[in-house]
Amino acid sequence: MAVRYRPGKEESESNSLIEENDTSEKPVSSSSESSESGDEMLNTHSTVVKRSNWKKDQWNIVILLFLYLLQGIPLGMAASIPLIIQSYGASWSQQATFSFAFWPFSLKLLWAPIVDALYLKRFGRRKSWLIPIQYSIGIVMIILSYYINDILLEPASATTNQHPHILFLTSIFFGLSFLAATQDICVDGWALSMLSRENVGWASTCNSVGQTAGYFLGNVVFLALESKDFANRYVRQPLQMELQPTGLITLPGFLTFWGFVFAISTTLIALFKHETDETHDSNEPHFGLVDTYKVLLRVLRLPAVRSMALVLLTIKIGFAAVDSMTGLELIERGVRKDTLALLAIPLIPLEILLPFLISRYTTGAEPLNLFIKSHPFRLLIGIVLAIYVAVTPSFQNYDRSFPWYYYALGVFIYGIQQVFMYNMFVSQMAFFAKVSDPKIGGTYMTLLNTLSNLGSSWVSTGVLYSADFLTWKTCSLGDGKCSTPAEEKNCGMLGGACRPYVDAYYIEVIISTIIGIIWLIWKYRTIIRLQNLPISAWQVRGDNQKYKPLATDE
Length: 554
Description:
Layout: H1 16-22, H2 31-48, H3 58-87, H4 92-98, H5 104-107, H6 112-117, H7 127-145, H8 148-153, H9 166-194, H10 202-226, H11 228-236, H12 251-272, H13 289-300, H14 303-314, H15 320-332, H16 337-342, H17 348-359, H18 368-395, H19 404-435, H20 441-469, E1 472-475, H21 485-493, E2 498-502, H22 504-532
Antiparallel strand pairs: 1-2
Region (Disordered): 1-42
Transmembrane segments: 61-85, 97-120, 129-148, 168-187, 199-225, 245-272, 340-358, 379-398, 404-425, 504-522
Membrane topology: Multi-pass membrane protein
């Protein structure tokens, strides 16, 4: 069970079915991405997918898969850091601070038009950004490999009980996430010109498979191979090798390896992969930099969009505590971080199949019906997960391990949660595809998804920050208090330990669930009303000259 979802997991590019039909998470921002993604992936793919010939573009498909895989590596590593610092005793406020590292994917629409509009024509529209971005990721990883252990292992301050480098660590991974988000914009746009018209639907498949594989390598595989317990039990012991105090790989070694992979592969792409000039059909919208931002502002002024924005920015409050804190709480109760990561493996087939099974119920005129019906069940399964966390210590064996049926129960519960989560995700994407104004292509879809991503980010950060204020601890020696860092230090010096007698996790789960119920009552009629609005209510009205193709970017 993951600590947090992959950046914008519920709203991200993880679902090829949705993407192939509605560009759900393509960061299309202006000219090529707005026109080609909005029209080709919404209209063309549905009509030509049956006669596509993937062999015609097989090498381009391989390149796209690899580029998306590279993108997933820093994202997976960023998602593993909360698990690592939790094992070092990180506080909730430190986890909240680090959660800002995931924000770039929620904000990339702010700079996507710049990436799309400004480039060196001689070097190529996408390569002008892709090459320096990927070199930067590789260089940062290589440099970070020399210092990451010192950053993580330095003890907390005696006066503040805070890790001295948490802000620095957050800044580094925020930068890596920003670079990965920018690389995502470049590759999304390049995919549409790299692939032939009949194979453009493969772009979303490459995104889904590639990024998921990269995230899996950077998170699950890394945490497993870095764990000494996993290495000794499942590798060295069966092979009758000498047990070691370290895993098969180290964090510095992992960073160094992928840093060089980024550098070498980027060099090869710069030298041998040529970019095809993008052309635009005169009937398709082609915005300049300033026009793109103007269109976004005009969309945001629509009453229907403003109402939907409020829904998207607040709906995750009811699930925030469970989604953001459950994995960290399990680690606090003795579940190893590598085991926690490996529990995601049995759920991969489910995550692949669910969108295909759900899509048949979201293709009609009322796709949000499934969204509304799944909301209370997702709240309920959150309470079940909180109970699972509470009973975790009772499953622990004398050697601090857990029986197989404990993990099987966890996978089962989390699998049910995934069903309701994907019900909401797929129906939401179907609704976005239905209402997006075709005159402005993928920009409309990207705006709605940005709002949805931002709704996940701010509630996660807010929940983690508030947890410190809702935790009350007492010293195990008896009357000692642990309300301040100085009192915690004093308790430790006397041989005691500060233990919570009021756990913020359960308080926040209760509060967020209550808010989720109130939210559903408050917004139920709003969602029904938005679903029943005519399409004209979602369209931007005004001078049609705004939507005529522009040649200024070229």
